[in-house]
Amino acid sequence: MHGLINRSIQNFVCDSYGPANWAEAARLAGLEFTEFEAMLSYPDTITPAVLDAVCDVLDRPREEVLEDVGTYLVSHPTYEAVRRLLRFGGVNFSDFLHSLDDLPARARLALADLELPGIELREHADGQFSLLCEAPVAGYGHLMMGVLRVMADDYGALVLLDHTGSAGGVETLTIMVVEADYSAGRSFDLGARA
């Protein structure tokens, strides 16, 4: 697993719950270190072990923790680049949803060796969608729910989200866009400010 993913979990725990909780999670996970290097690769078994340890330390289910990680990745000032990458998906929330199929490829433009799980959007009726998420780590769909909640707010859309389960390594989310222009949303400029 790419170190950036593990480092993001580490940063989430440190920023949200403090370094002492992260140190305890690292110890429980059997890590011989407490700092992930963002540009290194780690064995795929480390990420689930770290997530299990974080859940034990925080006494929270994995689904809640991963949804909070997804929220953190898009809303925390440290990860403004992630929000910007996602906002390039379209001028409104529906455009953004349709751009999600391309998210793994867009992420590779930023980091060539970053392999995000595949995502497939299916449109069912006006404003109703399913998002199929390959889940190499159980709960990845919940992480995407956190991302989608923040992005809906970012676009000013009123959206209902539900995780409807997993089968064959794929987690499914249902998305209902209740009102596309519910609020003003957050401003976005194509050019980054210095």
Automatic annotation (TrEMBL):
Span of domain Heme NO-binding: 2-156
InterPro entries: H-NOX_domain_sf (IPR038158), Heme_NO-bd (IPR011644), NO_sig/Golgi_transp_ligand-bd (IPR024096)
GO terms of molecular function: heme binding
Pfam families, per the entry: HNOB
SUPFAM superfamilies, per the entry: Ligand-binding domain in the NO signalling and Golgi transport (SSF111126)
Xref: PANTHER family: GUANYLATE CYCLASE SOLUBLE SUBUNIT BETA-2 (PTHR45655), SOLUBLE GUANYLATE CYCLASE GCY-32-RELATED (PTHR45655:SF13)
Protein name per UniProt: Haem-NO-binding
Organism: Sulfitobacter delicatus
